[in-house]
């Protein structure tokens, strides 16, 4: 059992809210998206929690029984949480990505690895005047602008697709001499990877949680060293070692966002209270560093740039994107007040163990 976001293209997964966060270059019917699966597990657990409360108040209410007993929310939550360790582990194993999207068939690059860098430009330009290392620049064949005009612009209207000299760029599966394809899990470490930990579905002492804690490990004051997702300004949306880091639109490919920082800092706060000394130390160090860095970044941008911003540059801390943005960026107030996301405890199976999961 798994879920996938609707309407995904090779360039965007808008329904997820993580617009240009890298998924697979090829789109498949059997894809499974880790962030959506995590949300569904959380929602099922939340319904189970609400039902327990309702049942305690109205134990003889037939309507309550119909809403709570028949759907079996607790069992659904348990099944979804167990599925995390069945569907989302595979070719990602050993890659440093503990849990990852299942992307279905993807093109194999040289050396047998999955191809992650698209063979087309991502800036809307194309043709011989805007070449790539492979030749004349291509347009994204899976998006809304698959055609290259003689003037070197990508578009999707007849002016771009049906004019003299216009060229429709081929999808990967339509190209001659395409490299072999193979089912893959995503090799990308980033915000999607953190959802099971951030939503309380992965116990802090689980081996896969340990990999995430290592990725958040703080570096030095000058910003060097540290884990792959750590920066002086907060948790980055994509690993600094990813080939797509800060590439293309660079929206969810390295920028620091308040909503996922709040979820992650909340998770680190919980893990910093874990009885295992190793987990407690690692999580505590990451929590202190990322909390201080994120709060300082938001406040410095507010002081210097006069606004709360949509996201922040992981290198400079400068506010970027929309401003003023007093939506989720004001979650900084909860971080400053040391008010992490509160989760109710529930025992759910995790990878063959009895592990602690959580629900709202």
From TrEMBL:
Highest taxon, organism lineage: Eukaryota
GO terms for MF: Glc3Man9GlcNAc2 oligosaccharide glucosidase activity
Record's subcellular location: Endoplasmic reticulum membrane
One Pfam assignment: Glyco_hydro_63
Name of this protein: mannosyl-oligosaccharide glucosidase
Main location: endoplasmic reticulum
Record keywords: Endoplasmic reticulum, Glycoprotein, Glycosidase, Hydrolase, Membrane, Signal-anchor, Transmembrane, Transmembrane helix
One BP annotation, GO: protein N-linked glycosylation
This protein's record includes keyword Hydrolase: yes
Family affiliation: Belongs to the glycosyl hydrolase 63 family.
Membrane topology of the entry: Single-pass type II membrane protein
InterPro entries found in the cross-reference section: 6-hairpin_glycosidase_sf, 6hp_glycosidase-like_sf, Glyco_hydro_63_C, Glycoside_hydrolase_63
EC numbers: 3.2.1.106
GO terms for cellular component: endoplasmic reticulum membrane
Domain Glycosyl hydrolase family 63 C-terminal, residue spans: 2-58, 186-337
């Amino acid at each position: 059992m798994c879920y996938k976001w609707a309407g995904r293209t090779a360039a965007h997964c808008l329904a997820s809210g993580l617009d240009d966060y890298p998924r697979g270059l090829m789109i498949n019917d059997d894809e499974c998206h880790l962030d959506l699966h995590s949300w569904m597990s959380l929602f099922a657990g939340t319904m189970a929690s609400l039902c327990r409360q309702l049942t305690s108040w109205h134990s003889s209410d037939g309507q309550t029984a119909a809403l709570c007993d028949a759907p079996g929310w607790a069992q659904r939550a348990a099944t979804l949480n167990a599925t995390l360790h069945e569907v989302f582990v595979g070719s990602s194993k050993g890659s440093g990505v503990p849990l990852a999207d299942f992307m279905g068939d993807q093109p194999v690059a040289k050396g047998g690895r999955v191809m992650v860098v698209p063979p087309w430009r991502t800036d809307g330009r194309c043709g011989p005047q805007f070449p790539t290392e492979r030749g004349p620049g291509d347009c994204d064949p899976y998006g809304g602008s698959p055609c290259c005009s003689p003037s070197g612009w990508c578009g999707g209207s007849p002016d771009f697709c049906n004019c003299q000299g216009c060229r429709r760029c081929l999808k990967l599966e339509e190209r001659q001499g395409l490299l072999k394809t193979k089912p893959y899990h995503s090799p990308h470490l980033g915000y999607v990877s953190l959802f099971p930990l951030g939503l309380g579905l992965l116990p802090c002492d689980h081996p896969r949680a340990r990999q995430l804690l290592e990725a958040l490990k703080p570096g030095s004051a000058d910003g060097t060293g540290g884990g792959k997702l750590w920066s002086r300004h907060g948790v980055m949306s994509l690993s600094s070692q990813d080939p797509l880091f800060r590439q293309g639109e660079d929206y969810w490919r390295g920028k620091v966002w308040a909503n996922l920082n709040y979820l992650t800092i909340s998770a680190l706060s919980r893990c910093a209270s874990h009885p295992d000394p190793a987990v407690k130390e690692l999580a505590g160090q990451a929590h202190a560093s990322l909390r201080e860095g994120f709060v300082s970044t938001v406040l410095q941008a507010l002081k210097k740039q006069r606004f709360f911003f949509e996201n922040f540059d992981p290198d400079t801390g400068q506010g970027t994107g929309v401003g003023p943005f007093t939506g989720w960026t004001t979650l900084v107030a909860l971080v400053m007040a040391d008010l992490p996301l509160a989760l109710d405890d529930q025992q759910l199976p995790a990878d063959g163990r009895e592990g602690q999961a959580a629900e709202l």
